[in-house]
Amino acid sequence: TAQCPTWQHLTALEYHFASTCIPTSEAWIHHQLPPFVLRMGVACMFVAELAAPFMLLVPVLMVRRVGVVVQAALQIGIVVTGNYNWFNIQTMVLLIPAWEDDNFDDPDSDALLLHRILCWPVRAWDRFWSTYVGRFVAFLASCLFLAWSFTLIFEIKLVDGRELHLSEVCPGGSLTSCAPGMFLQKALTTDFLTVTSTFQTKDVNRLSAAVLSPQAMTAFFSMLGIVCLRYVLSPLVFVRTSTITACFAAIASSCWRVLKCFLIFPFFVMCLLQCESIHRATRSALPLSSAVKPMEHALGSWEATHSYGLFRRMTGVGQVSSRGTKGFGNLPPSVVAVPAVVVEGSDDGNTWHEIDFRYTPGRPNRQPRRTAPHQPRIDWQMWFAALGNYQHNPWFVHLMYKILDGAGPHVETLLDIDTYRWKGREGPRYVRSWLYDYDFTRLDTAWARSIPGVKIINASSPAEHNKWWTRKQVGPYIETVSRDSLEPVIKQQGWPAGATERTKAAQRSVSCKKARKAAGGPLCRAVVAIRRSVDPWQQWSGFSFRSNMSRAVWPGASDLFFLDSNFILLTGPLLAVYAVKLLGIFACRRCCARAQSFHADNDKLKTE
Fold first, then answer.
1. How far, CA to CA in Å, does 151 sit from each of 48, 165, 442?
2. What are all long-range contacts of 14-18, with beta carbons under 8 Å and residues at least 24 apart?
3. What is the largest CA-CA distance in the chain?
4. What value does the mean pLDDT of the chain take?
5. Residue 457: strand pairing partners
6. Residues 6 or more apart from 536 whose CB is under 8 A from it?
7. Alpha-carbon distance 273 to 284, whole Å?
């Protein structure tokens, strides 16, 4: 629906790894993969996003678990190749209910008759799918469903458009003459095969109209109502005894579930209202849309729901110099041009020094860094600032003023403190910023040579190990400015100008006077204490190290790695808690084993 040619032609991954908000070293490795592999990856992503989610709703455990594995594999791939804070981990946590069994208990002999009657078909269904035959059938059906979904949407053909015949796979035209390794090598290293989408824009619009039609919405919400009804009535139906206490507990549980359904249902409708960007008739098709509208308006400032459109249109797509140029798969070459803003500082207006941020691309020889699950807001916003101009990003002007004013550790912690020339003293006298187009360097491959303007490096040469990026200057983002020229703009915006005003603003930001009037006073003081305790850590960016582990898998992989300080501070306590848990489990098992051995010896002595 976004009319983006990179998604339509399945070439999005040929740009994506370099154009992520905060690229990683692993993204550089994946950027070197053959175009056929990357286009197959886009096709598999569409299957995982469009077909596999329906498997999570099937009342068969094995089918749901296959759907969970598909979704988890997609999220792990995103985690490996990009810094997207914690949202991939959150998505995988939300998959846990689909992985878990329903755990229907067998009815006891003293259970109510209604309980035994209603439990029997559910248990019979669950018992069949838990057998070896049932699990095998469910697994096979899941794989066939995914394969059918792939063939329904995509097709693999020869580049010249002909169907793939046996003679193309096997030189002699018979199965006995097949050489799978030769065919696989040919498919990966040449433009022998291509994968294309059979769905056109009109097909997507027709599918969206069908899925979001009033009939489909009525059927969906009817099913949702049945599920909610079953959820609400299950405590009453499955009461095992007829005691007053049990009945009262069942009624209380049902009332609580009714309240949750009434709270969740409006939010669910609000989420579906965002589909108006796909199909305009969505609001008229949804039940209670008019009743939910005031709630949607009231929660608008909180952004409780919004349409998710990151990379809906792929960024970093460069211009091909000549229209007739063809790349792999008989498509235009994938020229990558990721916009990025570079800030420079100077003391005399003649000699300029680049001011690096912690995680933005920066200098061409600086390795991309991993930061997730930490979310560095300034580096993240720099990616969005490069897509527009400083007029739409006034915070960038404020940041340049703070750099000029020498705002101290509060600003220096946002920068790469290891390379910042003005650390611990007054800032530069002048600053300016440039807009660059970035691209990863490439290994010497046939598909890299088909792309005009790329920088090809020799992976076996130690002198080229640190050449991660290539960049081209596009033009000025903000012309040369000084502190005096920016100060009127800062005051006009109502921002604190000068060290005195900044100190007062900083004191107000950590003040808990307003919070003391409410119950949040102790919580506010605890947060302020934690922030002050971690301030010394803000000066530490992390450390780099070398390892040939990845080189053992692929000779062209990176051997330089960077561990971010915030990543260590976030994951360190979590790993420590998990380690304590494992030690506790080990100690309990050892104690239980000794107790069992003691009781066995005691029983043996008594017998003797």
1. 13, 16, 32
2. 14/38, 14/39, 14/334, 14/336, 15/314, 15/315, 15/316, 15/317, 15/334, 15/336, 15/338, 16/311, 16/314, 16/316, 17/81, 17/82, 17/440, 18/316, 18/336, 18/338, 18/438, 18/439, 18/440
3. 98
4. 79
5. 443
6. none
7. 10
Span 96-139, pLDDT tens digits: 888 887 655 555 555 555 556 666 676 777 778 888 999 999 99
In the chain, the amino acid numbered 525 is R
Compute and round to an integer the Cα radius of gyration of the chain: 30
Do 433 and 341 touch, CB atoms closer than 8 A?
A: yes
Tokens of residue 471, six digits: 């960049």
Side by side, the strands of the sheet bearing 430-440 are: 353-355, 338-346, 430-440, 469-482
As a whole number of angstroms, the distance between CA 229 and CA 213 comes to: 24
3-state secondary structure 495-530: CCCCHHHHHHHHHHHCCCHHHHCCCCHHHHHHHHHH
Q: With helix as H, strand as E and coil as C, how does 201-258 read?
A: HHHHHHHHHHHCCHHHHHHHHHHHHHHHHHHHHHHHHCCCCCCHHHHHHHHHHHHHHH
pTM of the predicted model as reported, rounded to 2 decimal places: 0.78
**Single-letter amino acid, residue 191:** D
| pLDDT band with cut points at 50, 70 and 90 for residue 434 | very high
Q: How far apart, in whole angstroms, are the C-alpha atoms of residue 429 and residue 422?
A: 11
Rounded CA separation 403/416 (Å): 13
Residue 337 predicted with pLDDT over 90 = yes
> Cα separation of 6 and 42, whole Å?
10
Instruction: Label residue 329 left, alpha or beta by phi (over 0 means left) and psi (-120 to 50 means alpha).
Output: left
Contact 68, 56 (CB under 8 A): yes
Whole-angstrom distance, CA of residue 165 vs CA of residue 149:
22
SS (H, E, C) 396-423: HHHHHHHHHHCCCHHHHCCECCCCCCCC
Structure confidence at residue 277 (pLDDT): 65
349-405: pLDDT as tens digits: 899 999 999 889 989 988 888 887 778 888 999 999 999 899 999 999 999 998 988
Tell me the C-alpha distance between 440 and 19, whole Å: 10
Beta-bridge mates of residue 561? 545
The DSSP code sequence of 85-154 is: TTHHHHHHHHTHHHHS---PPPPPTTS-HHHHHHHHHHHHHHHHHTSHHHHHHHHHHHHHHHHHHHHHHE
Looking up tokens 């193309």, which residue turns up?
Answer: 168
Residue 266 has pLDDT above 70, yes or no: yes
